[in-house]
């Protein structure tokens, strides 16, 4: 189930590893950091911003 993240929330969220901005990927329902190459899951509408829970992206 895909849940859209509000734009105002994306403006204040940052990658915990690189401190870079995150973008929402609606295909995977994840928050993606292009700088660190990590994708953070969203579970039950709540972003899980833990590096240990993130998956590496190519």
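^ Assign residues to that structure.
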């Amino acid at each position: 189930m895909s849940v859209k993240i509000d734009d105002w929330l994306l403006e204040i969220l940052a990658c915990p590893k690189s401190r870079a901005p995150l973008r929402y990927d609606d295909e995977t329902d994840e928050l993606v950091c292009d700088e660190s190459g990590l994708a953070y899951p969203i579970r039950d509408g709540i972003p899980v911003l833990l590096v240990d829970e993130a998956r590496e992206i190519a």
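The domain at 7-56 is CATH 2.20.25.10 (N-terminal domain of TfIIb).
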